[in-house]
Design a protein that fits this description.
Elements (H helix, E strand, L loop, with lengths): L1 H5 L4 H27 L2 E13 L3 E4 L4 E5 L6 E2 L4 E6 L1 H27 L7 H26 L2 E3 L4 E5 L27 E2 L4 E6 L4 E8 L11 E5 L7 E9 L9 H5 L7 E3 L6 E3 L3 E8 L11 E11 L1 H14 L1
Antiparallel strand pairs: 1-10, 1-16, 2-9, 3-5, 3-8, 4-7, 5-6, 7-9, 10-15, 11-12, 11-16, 12-15, 13-14
């Protein structure tokens, strides 16, 4: 054994070591290739906000001053009045339309009674009848608009405040969300389409996750989602994606803008009180699993989505294509 240690290696041994050294680059290349092609789990992180399950948004149907009949947290039944918009101009227009329709109806009745003795008034009777029909049609439309001034609950559920702000400017910081149900906004002026409140399930919650357009193709229904909750003791809540928006959202949730979880890349739409994000996002609905703590509505944070596994090569190719497209 001592002889084998101190004697120089044989020519065969030297050749074998040299052959092994030559194989090392090939073996390393094979290992690197396998590593590049091996699918690895991956996740996607995106901002979320908590909403009541089965939520229905209530919007102003006309311009005017709003008077609400409900408070946040109150339970209502379908058909129950929740707000009324005071629009005196529209009501005055209805009174004038009723007066015109009544006047034309009286005139038509008089012409009918005189038609026997004065045949020449037949043409005037026809014109009056047509004018009365037109006035009655216009009155019906105005009455329909007046009826819409009283806003009723479309479903059974609990009332939740809808984030809203009366002062949004292009160069102003994003305001904290407010609600028309809050006392400072009592008798506030509203325009058609302005959010008033939402109605949803009393206890069940779901999450809305905002995914930017570049990563939307990675998300699909059925994927698992974990909400990372900083303000809740358990720290996390899980759920499953049940719906993905078919088109980019017209505006980002105000609570996400206020929390700084969505970049302030918005601008005020002309004639509107809402902000449309320049960067397109898709809204993803997440059905939450049963959770020991009832999550507060409008709670915000970051969500982790378990997307499909992908190899390092796929990731590099995707990143390169996105970089070139942008």
């Amino acid at each position: 054994e001592l002889r084998a240690i101190f004697l120089p290696p044989s020519v065969t041994t030297i050749r074998s070591d040299r052959a092994m050294l030559k194989r090392w680059p090939l073996m390393a290349g094979v290992l690197i290739t396998l590593g590049m092609l091996l699918p690895l789990p991956r996740t996607l992180v995106a901002p979320f906000t908590v909403r009541p399950a089965d939520e229905k948004a209530i919007f102003a149907t006309s311009a005017g001053r709003i008077r609400t009949f409900v408070n946040e947290g109150q339970c209502v039944h379908a058909g129950e009045p929740i707000a009324e918009i005071e629009n005196w101009a529209l009501k005055d227009e209805m009174i004038r339309a009723e007066s015109l329709q009544q006047s034309l109806s009286t005139r038509r009745s008089s012409l009918i009674s005189l038609r026997q003795s004065k045949p020449e008034i037949a043409a005037g009777l026809l014109a009056t009848t047509q004018a009365e029909a037109s006035a009655a049609e216009r009155l019906a439309l105005i009455r329909k608009e007046v009826d819409q001034l009283v806003i009723s609950a479309p479903i059974d559920g609990m009332i939740f405040g809808q984030p809203w702000s009366s002062t949004l400017q292009d160069d102003a910081p994003v305001p904290m969300p407010s609600s028309l149900l809050e006392p400072p906004n009592e008798d506030a002026s509203v325009t058609p389409g302005m959010p008033i409140c939402t109605i949803g399930h009393e206890s069940r919650r779901e999450a809305i996750v905002l995914i930017d357009q570049k990563r939307a193709s990675l998300v699909r229904e059925g994927q698992r989602v974990t909400l990372l909750l900083v303000s809740v003791s358990s720290g996390a809540c899980e759920g499953t994606i049940i719906e993905i928006g078919a088109a980019p959202a017209e505006q980002s949730p105000p609570e996400l803008l206020a929390a700084g979880l969505v970049p302030d890349e918005s601008q005020t739409s002309s004639g509107s009180d809402s902000r449309a994000p320049r960067k397109e996002h898709y809204q993803v609905r997440v059905k939450l699993d049963d959770f020991e703590t009832r999550l507060p509505v409008r709670l915000t944070g970051q969500a982790r989505i378990e997307i499909d596994s992908a190899s390092m090569l796929e990731r590099i190719v995707r990143w390169t294509m996105q970089s070139l497209s942008s």
